[in-house]
Each structure stands twice: as structure tokens, then as C-alpha cells.
Amino acid sequence: MPRKPWIFAGTATVAALAVAAFLFFQTAGPATSQAQDLPVDPTPLVAITGSGVKSFDIEVADDPAERSTGLMFRETMPDDRGMLFVFEQMQPVSFWMKNTPLPLDLVFVAEDGTVRAIKKGEPFSEATISPGVPVRFVLELKAGMAAKAGIVAGTELRHPAIDHAAGASNPG
Fold this sequence. Notes:
By secondary structure, this protein is α+β, with helices and mostly antiparallel strands. It has four helices and seven strands; from the N terminus they run H-E-E-H-E-E-E-E-H-E-H. It has a seven-stranded mixed beta sheet with strand order 5-4-6-3-2-1-7. The longest helix has 24 residues, at about 5-30. The protein is globular.
């Protein structure tokens, strides 16, 4: 029995739409699968170390969307660059490296700018990275840069975002 042309046309249209939808979602993908490009802050972050003052150009992630994306999908970053995560208050924090191809140093910082802990971040790991103490800031640097700069627990970090938080907690 011959097929009716309208049935064939309807089937072909449905198949074409399915293929088009498949290709669209394969190529477009979600917007979150791209590295975020935050502007470099005009003021460098300064680390006051035992071997001198070291500075880093930083991007500041100070809202929930920026913090949740962080350095995910970032494949390269200069040695003197980092990202400073700014939280509203001292709190327990934890990070993971899913979707992050760069090995990182995670520098956990108290409200007064004092480094509390430094942890390593392994690319694409879903393991939780936490300092075990409340912090106000986290500075992400390329792996090895904290040690190279002389940043250890107790090092003081200075930047307007940190100084503002320290001043707000000590109004006198």
C-alpha cells in the first residue's frame, strides 16, 4: 500500500527538527562551560612575605555567580595572576576542581588578610578542598606560585577588598 505524502512529510519534518535540536545543543552548550573573563582589578594584591613584597594582578570574584564559576574552564593564566574570592563574612568554605584544567594553589585568608592555610587543587578533581577553619577570602594562584612567592600560613595579604573587610570588622 503506498504511503500518504502528508505522513511522509510529517515524519521527515519531525526527524529534521530532532537533528537540528541535537546539533544545536551539541555546539551551543550551556554558557557556563566557558571560562569567565573578569576584568583585572586596577590595584594589585600584595603579599608581605619573609623574603619581601610580592604582588599579583587579580580578578575579583565577589558575587555568587562569579564565585561559583571561578577559574573553571581556564586553560592558561600568567604566573603573576590570580583570582580573589570575596565572601560576605567569615565562614567555612570548600572548593572543588571539577571543570578546572589548571593545577592551583588555594590560599585561604582570614578577614584581617592573614593566610590561614594553603591547599593544592588537582585538575578536574571532585574532592573537597577546605582549610578546616572559617575564612573571608580565597586566593587562587597557579600551582607552586604561593611557595615561589614565599606565601605561607601567617603571611599578610593586602588589597582594597581585604582592607575594607578588615576595617569594617574593626571600626574603632
